[in-house]
Amino acid sequence: MANERKDRDKGFLFLVEIGGFNKAAFRTCSPIRRDTEIIENWEGGEMIADKDPGRTMFDPITLERAMTDNEELRQWCEDVVNFTEGNAGVPLNELKKTVDIIQLDRTRTPIRKYRLHECWPNTDQIGPWDNTTSENVLESVTLTFKYYTREPV
Q1: C-alpha gyration radius of the chain
Q2: Is 116 exposed, middle or buried (0-12, 13-18, 19+ CB in 10 A)?
Q3: What is the tens place of the pLDDT at every residue in 43-95?
Q4: Where are the alpha helices (DSSP H) in 1-153?
Q5: Residues of the chain by 3-state class (helix, strand, coil), percent to 5
Q6: Are 120 and 79 in contact (CB under 8 A)?
């Protein structure tokens, strides 16, 4: 076991599963990040502060993929716009979805799974458009979520 290679995480392959979508393949995913506030307490003239955790914030993530004819992601973004305009389209509890980001090893076996709770798209983008390259046009979506958990695979 001492000579076993530790390279199973080097493939950086991942899946993204969005609750209610049939298919949503993505090329890249930004880091999943949380940041907890530091509260400093200065007790009775102490020269060194006690430090305690405060509120935790979760940064939005951005997913990118080549432009496709799959309309589910675009419709989800439209549903958010319609909700915020007060058109009473999709109820809020259906608008927010569960998103699973699953890391795979090189044999495409799941090794880690993170679940983003109560996600909704706050930014979507198509482009840039560059006819001088052979690259596909990318579309991206930024998801805001309440919190994440690490799940068993």
Answers
A1: 20
A2: buried
A3: 888 899 999 999 999 999 999 887 777 788 888 988 888 876 666 667 888 88
A4: 72-84, 92-95
A5: 10, 45, 45
A6: no
